[in-house]
Every structure is written in C-alpha cells, then in structure tokens.
Amino acid sequence: MMTNIIEALRQESVAKLFTGKVFFRSFETWKGEINSITPNKTSRQVIDLGDHLSEIFRTTRTAGRGQGDVSGGGAAWESIVCWYLNLCSIGRRSVAIKHSRALIPDPICDAITVNYRNFVSNTESDLIVIVFPDKPEYQIDKELIHVNDANGRPVPLFSQGRNPKYNLKAVLNALCHRDFSEIEIHIIQCKTNWNDNAQIPMLWDMIYSATNFRNNVTIGRNGYSIANIAQFSYSFVTVPTSRITSITPNSTCVKRVSNISGGNYWGRPTQNNVASSIKEMLLRNLSRGHGQNFLTTLQTELQRLNTEYTFFGLS
DNA sequence: TCAGAGAGACCTCTATGTCT
DNA sequence: AGACATAGAGGTCTCTCTGA
C-alpha cells in the first residue's frame, strides 16, 4: 500500500504512544468513552472530542497522590492530546509527536534547543507538531522519494542488512534540512494541573519569543533557528485537575498563560477569557497543513479508520 | 541485540504565607 | 476571616546511552 512520509511518521508517532504502559492500560477504558461520544465517527463528532478530552481522561483518575499517579498521569495526558491531534490531522501535512529523539528530525530538534551559555537545555517533554510544506515529496509514496542529505549525498531509503528497514528519520532529516524555511513548528506544553504549573509555559514562551538576551541565552544550534522557519508557536494544554469553579478570568494561573503565542487550551468546551477547547488549536495554529478545512479532510479519511488507520486503536 | 543504569520529567495535597 | 498563591514532600515511568 502506498504511504506518504507524513502518514508514515504519524503512524510511528501514534504507535509509540501505545508502548507506554499507563497509556496502553488507560486507553482500554478511554476507548469505550470515545466510541460512545463519537458513535458515527463523523468529522464533526471526532473534532468535538476535544470538548470531552478532560472528561475522558478523568475516567481513569485514581484518588490519592501516589508517585505512580504523578508519573503516569502526566505522560498519559500528553499522550491523549497527541493521539487526538493526530487523529484530527489525518490526511493533512501536520503530525504531532510526543518528544522522542527517534522521531523528531534533527533540524527541528536543533532549532528549538535553548542554550544557556554552554549548557544545552532542550525542553525534553513537550509535544511538538510539525507542519510540512506543500511539496511533492510529502505526497508521493515514501519509497519513491529522492533527496540529498545536508552534505549533498543521496539518502538511501533502506538500511543495509538482512532485514532492511525504511530510513524514516534519515529521509526526514534531509527533507527538513532542504525545506527548513517552509516548515512550521508548534510546541505544546501539557500539564494536568493548571494553577501549580502556569509559570512554566509562561516562562518558556517568553524565552522563545525573545529575540535576544543580554546573558548568553540563545535559541537554536547547528545553523537551525526558529527565527528562520515559516511559523512558530508555543501553547499550553491542561486538563485541569484543580477545582474548575476556582478558575476565573482573573485568576493568576489564567493571566499567566493568557498571552502565550499559541494560546491556552483545555479538554473542555471553550470558556471565554479563560481557556479554549483544544479543538480550536486545530484552526488557530494548524490550519495551514492543507488547502481544505479539517471537517473536509477528516470526512474523507475517517472512512478508512478501520482499514488504513487501525493504529489509532479504535477498531 | 539486549539488559541495565542514569537522567529527566511527571502531579497532588497540605501547610503556610499574604493580601483584601 | 476568607480567598488565593506558593513551597515542599515524595516514588515511578520512559527514554537514551553504554557495555557485554
């Protein structure tokens, strides 16, 4: 079957989520919830899942504050957001990736690296959405791509040896290098709790939006910088697990993220001046990944949910 | 190729401080 | 007094790298 490189990357990215123990276990429960919210799997129903993500997430919530909950909860929230963004993006040129060296092309990784004098500090645990440019290599069968690497040498599509594997990362590295200025990067900071953690996205957004510092803080390395790409944004997505009634437009935690470049979101319906539903991020930050809107692209692709897209785990 | 070690990131709840 | 903000405590999970 023909697969373009973007869908190949999406498949790897989503499949990797299921290798996480907590996500794998939780998804057994979430799947039922998801299917009951989207009985007909229309594009509208699937996109509106964004209004219910927190609700779904909370079905596996356990009381208490054991360290397992700490560790697992955060990773699981990040994973379900990644899963949702990829589901809504099928057939488009955007892919959400939970941070992983193996999947994020090197030029992207380099561009978002923050250097604190000599110390290299990657924000290691965010979701990254890459929007690839509208060029033929991203649409044709991935096995027909001809591209040269940064040194001008053709990239071999398969590894050597008895069981040749497709060189996904190497091909992506070469493409991202070649098309760097036309790529969009959107970083998404996920937190289950809002009020305790609002400073973190606020401060990282400040760092990424600053053009220069006086004290040896720089962004980017190896010649790649977010200053040279087509679009960059930083956003915040929370459940939130704290009491919802205590969050108002005037709360400190709301104000802290009210100005970040990509916006602030939660897995609930939009509430004015507080947070937008995560589904609004699709339109606000990721709409350039296709000529048509999400409703249209999804409607076509969802027909193949049980054949080509089984890796989402819904069938 | 795989196991093991190390690094880094994960969140909830209570107590205490601070402002109105 | 009440509302809100913050610090602090604490074990586990996942990824990556290294050496066998």
Draw up the topology in text.
Layout: H1 5-17, H2 21-37, H3 43-48, H4 53-58, H5 67-89, E1 94-98, H6 106-111, E2 114-116, E3 119-121, E4 127-131, H7 168-178, E5 184-191, H8 199-209, E6 217-219, E7 231-238, H9 252-257, E8 263-266, E9 276-277, H10 279-286, H11 294-301
Parallel strand pairs: 5-7, 7-8, 8-9
Antiparallel strand pairs: 1-4, 2-3, 2-6, 4-5
This protein binds a DNA duplex (20 and 20 nucleotides) through residues 19-22, 64-75, 77-78, 99-102, 124-125, 191-193, 195-197, 241-242, 246, 251-253.
Which stretches are poorly predicted, pLDDT < 50 over at least 5 residues? none
How large is the count of helical segments? Answer: 11
| Alpha-beta classification | alpha/beta
For the record, give the distance between the C-alpha atoms at the N and C termini, rounded to a whole number: 20 Å
**What number of domains?**
1
Largest sheet: 6 strands, mixed
Task: List SSEs in N-to-C order.
Answer: HHHHHEHEEEHEHEEHEEHH
Tally of strands:
9
Give the strand content.
5-15%
Mean pLDDT: 87
- Across the major sheet, the strand order is 1-4-5-7-8-9
Instruction: Give Rg in angstroms.
Output: 19 Å
Q: What shape does the CA trace take? A: globular
Summarize the amount of helix as a percent range: 25-40%
